[in-house]
Amino acid sequence: MLMIDTGLFNQQAEEAVVGSLFLKEELVKECTVLPEQLYLEPLQNLLSVIKRLDEKGKPIDVISVLEEVGEENIQSVGGISYITELVGRVPTTENFHLYQSIVKEYHQKRNIIGIADKIISNAHEGDFTKTVNEGIHHLMEIEEDQTNDELGEIKTTLVEFYQDCEKDLGEIQGIPSGFIELDRLTGGFQESDFIVVGARPSVGKTAFALNIALNSSEHDIGIVFSLEMSKKQLLKRAASCIGNINSTKMRNPRKCFEEDDWSHLSYALGKVSQSNLHIFDKAGMDIHYIWSKLRKIRSVHGEKKRMLVVIDYLQLIIGDPKHKQNRQAEISEISRTLKTMARELNLVVIALSQLSRGVESRQDKRPLLSDLRESGQIEQDADVIAFLYRDDYYDKNSNQKNIIEVIMAKQRNGPIGTIQLAFMKEYGKFLNLNQ
């Protein structure tokens, strides 16, 4: 067979992978190369046939291949003589896993070239920002595939696990929320967790999430992706919260501020400027944009710095255009991608979510898992689901004024339950109840 382009593939490695399966049948169980990862079409077809034979429990030899493809189609796998020659071209089956890795590296190289070609083509005629974000996302996928532990080795992780057991990690192992009872229930927010916080409009979702982001940014990194409010509006809220400044005064400080308010504002702005808080407020963000920004921050700060990400809110993220006619499929894909992102970048993702109006029709208006809007996939993907409930939101005469319930409805690695926080609406500030 002629060599076509050795810069794009390694013919010897491809033939050694497929040929080894004829010499040592049990290697088919260890074969992680997919037919489409091979460059040569006859080898792609031949590997597909071999995998089918294995699924059917049939032997892997020339006769079985001939029977599976039919004599009239034997040239699609290179012909009988080629298969026979293939076996003779295998130096040793002992290097099977090395041959596999070479094949995959060349496949990744071809993918990178394809992505680069697409970026060049789209840059001439498409949206530049979208082109760059999509290109980065596809390149990230290739890199993550490359770093996957192909053999699933566990010894290193077992050693790390044992070493963790010898340490006194304290009650709070994750990123503290700043609220004692909530941290006691969760052990702090764990890296790689996807957390969903749901509530009806105006209950206090954004304020709650901003409080957590501000608290986390004192020692860790707090990141907010705001799809509903501008950066300036969020910083006004942050200043109001930290400085105990009434939010109505913040609308027109020059007119409404008293002397104390100005000193409180200076203190608040100083605290925020010294924090590790990042805010992104671009209109119409998609998941590729969010992922690329987080990846950049992670590369700047490294793995040792913990990161907590707030997305306000999930249903406003722009999904894949192919799901435009199916909102549930669109939200499902966004949810799955957020969970993948939390794991791949090893960070906490807190996504705010709207709840359906079904809450309003019940006598007890505390939210349930079934109230999550648009997709049951969110419930499945999330490691933690918390709901916010205020009795005085529904009953102006409630004796539970300025108290918000955080209802932990799901926690994959911990208990569920309800804790109460004080909510100072005029400052957009949450406090431990004893404060």
CATH topology type of the largest domain: Rossmann fold
Write down the secondary-structure element order: HHHHHHHHEHEHHHEHEHEHEHEEE
Q: Which regions contain 5 or more consecutive residues with pLDDT less than 50?
A: 1-5
CATH superfamily of the largest domain: P-loop containing nucleotide triphosphate hydrolases
Query: What percent of residues adopt helix (DSSP H or I)?
Result: 40-55%
| Corresponding CATH architecture of the largest domain | 3-Layer(aba) Sandwich
Main beta-sheet annotation: 9 strands, mixed
Number of domains: 2
Our measurement of the CA-to-CA distance between the termini, rounded to an integer number of angstroms, reads 79 Å
**Structural class by secondary-structure content:** alpha/beta
Cα gyration radius (Å):
28 Å
Number of helices, where a helix is a run of at least 4 consecutive DSSP H or I residues: 16
Overall morphology? elongated
Q: Please identify the top-level CATH class of the largest domain.
A: Alpha Beta
Q: How would you describe the oligomerization state of the chains in this entry?
A: single chain
Spatial arrangement of strands, main beta sheet:
3-2-4-5-1-6-7-8-9
Structure description:
InterPro entries: DNA_heli_DnaB-like_N_sf (IPR036185), DNA_helicase_DnaB (IPR007692), DNA_helicase_DnaB-like_C (IPR007694), DNA_helicase_DnaB-like_N (IPR007693), DNA_helicase_N/primase_C (IPR016136), P-loop_NTPase (IPR027417). This is Replicative DNA helicase. The chain is of the alpha/beta class and 435 residues long. The protein folds into two domains: 1-148, DNAb Helicase, Chain A, CATH 1.10.860.10; 170-432, P-loop containing nucleotide triphosphate hydrolases (Rossmann fold, 3-Layer(aba) Sandwich). Helix content is 47%, strand content 13%. The chain contains 16 helices and nine strands. It has helices spanning 11-23, 41-55, 62-69, 80-88, 96-125, 128-147, 155-166, 180-186, 205-216, 231-243, 253-256, 259-274, 287-301, 327-345, 376-381, 391-394, and strands at 194-199, 221-226, 277-280, 307-312, 348-354, 384-390, 403-411, 417-424, 429-432. A nine-stranded mixed sheet has the order 3-2-4-5-1-6-7-8-9. β8 (417-424) and β9 (429-432) form a beta hairpin. The longest helix is centred in the first third of the chain and has 30 residues, at 96-125. It is elongated, with a radius of gyration of 28 Å. Mean pLDDT is 85; it is low at 1-5.
